[in-house]
Amino acid sequence: MNSRKIICLIIIFSLLALSACDYMPIDKLAIVTGLGIDKGEDSRYLVTAEIARMEGGESGKLEPHIVTGKGDTIAEAISMLGRQAGGRLYTAHCSVVIIGEALASENLSDTVKSIYKLPKFSPLASVAVSRNCDANRIMNLKPVMRSLISEEISGIMEAQYDEAGIEPRIHVYEVYSDISGGRTPALPSAHADEEEKVKMDVFYE
Questions:
Q1: Closest CA to 134 of 24, 35, 4
Q2: How many domains does the chain have?
Q3: Residues paired with 98 in a beta bridge
Q4: pLDDT at residue 5 tops 60
């Protein structure tokens, strides 16, 4: 089953879960598939989200939308994202989190802990650090092989770790566990090449 079908199923199951509470049109569901978190200028955090929406109802196609929000906490910035997205925001199926290089260098520990403690956030999301650019730029790159940039990043990371024969510890819960235990996590890095395509390196240096 390809990733597009998986996300479509996620949207359908999310609708079913909500049906017992209230009705939410399918084009109003805002499923967050990836997050970029940067150090803000006039606020502490700038958060960029890739949102997958089913355009044109159930017979339509999956389309990515990029929205940004800012706040003094990551949760506050995500709350702003929901207002910009114009629908209820779901982060439980986020697959990728890119932390901006400046923020990671300054305070990786608190950032990861804040992500881990977000309500209903997926502990299985993969974590990477941007290199020579901010996370916002990575999230705004156009995918080449997949329909979503988060899918593209996940696919590249999986292929690189398989090729290197390394068992990665890059999921949010694993990175949180390393930091809480006083260990420095070895995270992959993401950057943009000259053709504005996303590139990944197994280890961030």
A1: 35
A2: 1
A3: 36, 128
A4: no
Question: What is the reported pLDDT for 104?
Answer: 95
Print the domain residue range for 125. Answer: 3-201
Token representation of residue 129: 């650090």
Query: Which residue is associated with the tokens 């290197």?
Result: 164
Give the pairing of strands 126-130 and 189-192. Answer: parallel
- Average of per-residue pLDDT values in the chain: 83
Q: Which token pair is 187?
A: 């995270």
Tokens 């990371």, residue?
Answer: 157
pLDDT at 62 over 90: no
Instruction: Round to whole Å and give the CA distance between 186 and 143.
Output: 25
Is 63 in a helix, a strand, or coil?
strand
Question: At residue 100, does pLDDT exceed 60?
Answer: yes
Q: Token digits for 169? A: 């510890």
